[in-house]
Amino acid sequence: MFHFHSFPNAQAAACALAQAVSGSLRDILHKQERATLAVSGGKSPIAFFQALSVQDLDWPRVNITLADERMVPVSHPDSNTALVRQYLLQNRAAAARWLPLVDDAADEGCLKDSAAAVSFALQHYVQPDIVVLGMGADGHTASLFPQAPQLGKGLRADYPQPLLHVSPVTAPHERISMTLAAIERSTRVYLSIAGEDKLAVYHRAAEGISPLYPVSSVLHSEKADCHVFYS
To answer: Among 3.90.105.10, 3.40.50.1360, 3.50.50.60, 1.10.530.10, what is the CATH number of 2-230?
Structure first.
């Protein structure tokens, strides 16, 4: 189930989220040799990335990957990989190990082969211990989009792979995304949202599971320990 935490502004939420995530990673590292963190892209998490990058952690023992990625070259302005490298894999966090979803050498032509792109991502996949998700105004999370033809597969408990190709109807670019089952296998899930419009979507999703709001499947999961950070 989910727990709701509210903050007065985006900076306060970003700092609190960075402290919570670093604390969770520290707990994981006390129990096992390595910890794996999956984060989400877009512009919203930049302040969180910057705050997390300076946290005092044993970063050489931390893997960082993405919960989802657009199937674009890493040099593309919409690449989440580029965003993470610019804002998170800096300062102390520069010592972390990066687990790619998209090949640095892949061009637009290569990425049109969705099966090959997913195969590359799966070769580097390590089950995340901690997942940090965002939420769109359409109720999507990771790249589990409403109306996407692959949504049913992405929400299936028995889907055989932790990653799948998604074709959004409400957003540009083909995607690679963690499935709900993979998200549920993590120790802790954090969901970061901001603004009154997204709060209204969150409240609708919090009423119950609905394919109109894929994030509702995370909120109401009996397996996911989800903490919502709102500003």
So the answer is: 3.40.50.1360
